[in-house]
Design goal:
With 195 residues, the chain is an alpha/beta fold. It has one domain: Rossmann fold, CATH 3.40.50. 53% of the residues lie in helices and 12% in strands. The chain has 8 helices and 5 strands. Strands 2-1-3-4-5 form a 5-stranded parallel β-sheet, with helices on both faces. Helix 7 links the parallel strand 3 and strand 4.
């Protein structure tokens, strides 16, 4: 795909190979950890920028709706950055690099939604180097929260700054984002089908 032309058949073949190169054992470990933490009343937070934010919203929707019948009142799933007004206020007051960590801290300190050490933060970043994602990962780890990181390209700093790293070895944003969506779908299926 680096020759400037896109052959959709070759592109589809490359996507298929990429999907089959995913470490399925790591996905099962991630799903198992999420399940244990949800059963103990932990919250699941998703975060990403741009296309990764859309993936974050989609994953929170699927898990929130799809897993409700199993977890009922224990199920607390949230995509950070969904409230544009709040995101704007946090960026204005604390800097864009802190929008996710500030919202995460606000939610965890809310007395209505009690936080606990069973929370999980799922950071999605194609480059693995977005400052706001890295700050969220650091803040979450400092709180004792499990961090699962989805990255692409070389993995960036996120790859080494999380408890479970699901790295997609690709050099193309479209492929990385497709793989990240697929990975989260697989985690959801592990939680749903194997419940």
């Amino acid at each position: 795909m680096t020759d400037g032309k896109i052959n959709i058949e070759r592109y589809t073949d490359e996507i298929s190979k990429l999907m089959m190169s995913i470490n399925f054992e790591t996905i099962k470990v991630a799903a198992s950890n999420i399940r244990q933490r949800m059963e103990a009343g932990g919250q699941i937070f998703f975060a990403g920028n741009g296309g990764s934010l859309a993936i974050s919203h989609h994953a929170a929707c699927d898990m929130g709706k799809g897993l409700y019948r199993f977890y009922k009142e224990k199920l607390r799933v949230r995509s950070l950055g969904v409230n544009a007004a709040l995101t704007s206020a946090l960026a204005n007051d604390f800097g864009y690099e802190n929008i996710f960590s500030a919202e995460y801290q606000m939610v965890r300190s809310n007395s209505i939604v009690n936080s606990n050490s069973n929370d999980v933060v799922i950071c999605i970043s194609s480059s693995g180097n977005s400052d706001n994602i890295l700050n969220l990962a650091t803040t979450a780890k400092d709180d004792g929260t499990m961090v699962i990181g989805l990255s692409g390209f070389s993995g960036g700093k996120l790859k080494d700054n999380c408890d479970i790293s699901v790295h997609v070895s690709a050099e193309n944003y479209l492929m990385i984002e497709l793989a990240h969506q697929h990975i989260l779908d697989l985690i959801f299926l592990e939680l749903w089908v194997n419940e």
